[in-house]
């Protein structure tokens, strides 16, 4: 590894550590109804296939907004098929049978697949410019790149407001967010 690559990796590791701490504090201070603004945004896309996610650890929970959206069209959740691969998406409905998937995220037992046009994306940190810091596996970046090569695909970052960072250590392969929704506001990145 070159000195520049080591420096970039150390910067990302430090940013992730700070982001985990900020998200944990926001999670512990959260109030009910955190998905309200996300529901507002998704109301404008009724019937469009979308993917949410099953919250793990201290992630903000999109479940209420996903349940609302499922009344109007297909909803899926991401499935990790293997390292270095894009995500696939399993059809999800409220109260469907779930099993433990990779990294502890629950996935539907049925396993029927779907392809979303809107992705609600979990994250560690975001910037107002649409940057996203994830866990480091590159799953969402590969997935968004593949989906966007086929058709317009909307990436909505869902996070606590406290997860905003001004100077994210981004790379060329990082896919931008089209919209960021927090418990406090809806942010449309400039650009």
From TrEMBL:
<keyword id="KW-0479">Metal-binding</keyword>
<dbReference type="GO" id="GO:0035999">
    <property type="term" value="P:tetrahydrofolate interconversion"/>
</dbReference>
<keyword id="KW-0460">Magnesium</keyword>
<dbReference type="InterPro" id="IPR024185">
    <property type="entry name" value="FTHF_cligase-like_sf"/>
</dbReference>
<dbReference type="Pfam" id="PF01812">
    <property type="entry name" value="5-FTHF_cyc-lig"/>
</dbReference>
<dbReference type="GO" id="GO:0046872">
    <property type="term" value="F:metal ion binding"/>
</dbReference>
<keyword id="KW-0067">ATP-binding</keyword>
<dbReference type="GO" id="GO:0030272">
    <property type="term" value="F:5-formyltetrahydrofolate cyclo-ligase activity"/>
</dbReference>
<comment type="similarity">
    <text>Belongs to the 5-formyltetrahydrofolate cyclo-ligase family.</text>
</comment>
<dbReference type="GO" id="GO:0005524">
    <property type="term" value="F:ATP binding"/>
</dbReference>
<dbReference type="GO" id="GO:0009396">
    <property type="term" value="P:folic acid-containing compound biosynthetic process"/>
</dbReference>
<dbReference type="InterPro" id="IPR002698">
    <property type="entry name" value="FTHF_cligase"/>
</dbReference>
<keyword id="KW-0547">Nucleotide-binding</keyword>
<dbReference type="InterPro" id="IPR037171">
    <property type="entry name" value="NagB/RpiA_transferase-like"/>
</dbReference>
<keyword id="KW-0436">Ligase</keyword>
<protein>
    <recommendedName>
        <fullName>5-formyltetrahydrofolate cyclo-ligase</fullName>
        <ecNumber>6.3.3.2</ecNumber>
    </recommendedName>
</protein>
């Amino acid at each position: 590894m070159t000195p520049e690559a080591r420096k970039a990796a150390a910067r990302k590791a430090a940013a992730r550590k700070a982001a985990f701490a900020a998200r944990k504090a926001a999670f512990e201070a959260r109030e009910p109804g955190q998905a309200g603004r996300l529901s507002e945004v998704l109301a404008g896309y009724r019937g469009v296939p979308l993917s949410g996610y099953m919250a793990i650890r201290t992630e903000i929970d999109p479940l209420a907004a996903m349940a609302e959206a499922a009344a109007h069209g297909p909803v899926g959740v991401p499935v990790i098929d293997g390292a270095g691969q894009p995500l696939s998406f399993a059809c999800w409905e409220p109260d469907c049978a779930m099993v433990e998937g990779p990294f502890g995220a629950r996935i539907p037992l049925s396993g029927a697949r779907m392809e979303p046009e809107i992705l609600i994306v979990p994250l560690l940190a975001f910037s107002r410019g649409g940057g996203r810091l994830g866990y480091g596996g590159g799953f969402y970046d590969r997935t968004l790149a593949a989906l966007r090569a086929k058709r317009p695909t909307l990436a909505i970052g869902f996070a606590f407001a406290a997860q905003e960072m001004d100077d994210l250590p981004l790379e060329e392969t990082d896919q931008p967010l089209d919209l960021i929704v927090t418990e406090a506001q809806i942010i449309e990145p400039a650009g």
